[in-house]
Amino acid sequence: MALFKVENLTYYYPASAEAALKNINLEIREGEFLLLVGASGSGKSTLARVLAGLIPDFYGGKMGGRVLFKGREMRELNRRQVAREVGMVFQDPERQLVKTQVEAEVAFGLENLGLPLPEMRRRVAEVLAFMGLEPVKGSFTAHLSGGQKQKLALASVLAMQPRVLVLDEPTSQLDPASAEEILQLVRRLNEETGLTVVLAEQRLERCLHLADRVILLARGEVVCEGRPAEVAQEIAGADPLLLPPVARFFTRLGVSPVPITVKEGRQILLGRLRPEGGPAGKPTPAPAKNSPVRGGNPAAVEMQGVWYTYPQGNEALKGVSLNLQKGEFAVILGAN
Ligand code: ADP
Ligand code: MG
Fold first, then answer.
1. Rounded to an integer, what distance in angstroms lies between the CA atom of residue 41 and that of residue 318?
2. Is residue 172 in contact with ligand 1, taking CB distance under 6 Å?
3. CA-to-CA distance for 76 and 68, rounded, in angstroms?
């Protein structure tokens, strides 16, 4: 069963004649990393608010269609339960922080859940350590940098141990290094703990490749959805300025499918320069076990049938053959 199911959702803000969302249908699976993209005013924040259960409760307005969370209508669910399971981080962390001190901020949401004190202390310590906020746990929130404030907003939400994290342009106030750090943390949470992530973003260079699925919105409607590379292709036709620079560059060259990371772009270029290389844009297949040859670049390291015995007599290598290509990132795996 889908975690969220949105059926024929149309929504008008109070006193607005134009619908902010029009006939939206979508499903979100547990553990998925979903990216909402689109130009400013396309409805990303509005859809994020719907998923977090804030629309229509806090914003009012008129809503048509249904939003199901775990098979039940969102509006029939207890507010507290929704807040506990769906955590939302807003664009501007200043507006989200309610306490003056870092630890108190993280504890605030937990106090509202009525957790026993030892459990609360444990969760606060855990989440501060995870977010790298341990050194500033006693600080005034007003003294934190923008990146630290955004991390604190995220920490306060994570302390509640939600199943879903909805993030509305969480990096728009941040410098590139802090933005990268926040997105890597979110990616780790998604990969390592299975947290479902819905990320609304306008600037895609840091996040397009992180998503399992991308939904492109325009004027309140879903224009297309699919894997990042598929949607990148669509965006290239509709609004190339939304694309990460590497994808935009290759779009101009008329390359299809459009690469979405620098690494993919480089592989396409290498593939085109290569005399008998594989088809451009396709990842090189993994070599067979001990396969000495692999098409493409000249090898940087080539080993064939290498045996090695330490002076004490330990046979450490027994006929190892392998090729490492220039620029390749290889992992050598095995027990101690
Ligand atoms: P995005 O996040 O993609 O920039 P929004 O969801 O904020 O888009 O906006 C979608 C539409 O809803 C826009 O026309 C916007 O003006 C309108 N809108 C957004 N927030 C509000 C609000 N709080 N009250 C009234 N209209 C709003
Ligand atoms: Mg927005």
1. 63
2. no
3. 10
15 lines ligand 1 (CB under 6 A): no
CA of 169 from ligand 2 middle (Å) equals 7
**What distance in angstroms lies between residue 43's CA and the mean position of ligand 2's atoms?**
7
The response to whether residue 91 sits with its C-beta less than 6 Å from ligand 1 reads no
For 37, 148, 165, 171, 183, the CA distances from 162, given in Å and listed in that order, are: 23, 21, 7, 20, 17
Is any atom of ligand 1 closer than 6 Å to the C-beta of 314? no
Q: Is the dihedral of CA 261, 265, 266, 268 positive or negative?
A: positive
pLDDT 10s per residue in the chain (336 long)?
A: 799 999 999 999 999 999 999 999 999 999 999 999 999 999 999 999 999 999 988 899 999 999 999 999 998 898 888 988 999 999 888 888 888 899 999 999 888 888 899 999 999 999 999 888 999 999 999 888 888 899 999 999 999 999 999 999 998 878 888 888 889 999 999 999 999 999 999 888 889 999 999 999 999 999 999 999 899 988 888 778 888 888 888 888 888 888 888 888 998 888 876 654 444 444 444 444 444 444 566 789 999 999 999 988 888 999 999 999 888 888 887 766
Identify which ligand lies nearest to the alpha carbon of 38.
1
Q: Which residue's alpha carbon is at the smallest distance from atom 22 of ligand 1? A: 13
pTM: 0.79
Run of H or E residues at 84: helix 79-85
Closest ligand to the CA of 91: 2
Atom of ligand 1 nearest to the CA of 43: 6
Which atom number of ligand 1 is nearest to the Cα of residue 59? 23
